[in-house]
Amino acid sequence: MRKPVSTRRLTGGIIEAEDNGRRGNDQNRLEWWAVSFCADDEYRGGPVGRALGFEADLADIQDFSGHVLRKESKLTSLFTSFTSEIRIARRFTSMADNRFIRKVELAKLRVFESQGIIRIWDPDQVFEAMRAGANKQAKQAADVRAVMRRNREVLIEGQVSERAFALVYD
User: CA of 11: how far to CAs of 22, 32, 92, 106, 159, in Å?
Assistant: First the structure.
């Protein structure tokens, strides 16, 4: 039996902790993430992601389904994946340790989002955007949402400053 998870809610720029003991639909709600993890074997410092605008337009992958369902390490993407669990982040790096995993607080991501630097996409927002799009995208919306929920994933569109990240130690 799993222990109740400690969740956190972001209210007015302050993260408040609470222990609700539930894992159901709350596990995919962005509000309770305190820290997100990002794994990338190619990361050697600097900002993460592509700046909105021209740089983002040059990415190989421009849609949600391409990033979530078919992303290959050699392809660039408009999006960067973040997960709430380090064990999931480890699956997206070839290293056995945490050397290519970075963490960032949700509060910092929210500040960047409020400044228009990034956009945060949770599984339900991605689902709704895909359902409103072209027919091919709409058909894949449920699959993309299911994978994102399984990976406890959010997508960041835009560029996150290197200063926002911290190293993850074993």
Answer: 20, 10, 31, 12, 24
What is the tens place of the pLDDT at every residue in 87-134? 888 888 777 777 778 888 888 888 999 999 999 999 999 999 999 988
Q: Is-contact 31 25, C-beta < 8 A?
A: no
Q: Are strands 101-105 and 35-39 parallel, antiparallel or unpaired?
A: antiparallel
Phi and psi dihedrals of 95, rounded to 5? -85, 145
**Of 53-57, 127-131, 166-170, the least confident:** 166-170
Alpha-carbon distance 154 to 84, whole Å? 9
- Report the chain's terminal Cα–Cα distance, integer Å: 25
Going by C-beta distance under 8 Å and a sequence separation of 6 or more, which residues neighbour residue 148?
28, 68, 122, 123, 126, 154, 155
Collect all residues with Cβ–Cβ distance below 8 Å to 70 and sequence separation of at least 6.
Answer: 61
pLDDT for residue 33 is more than 80: no
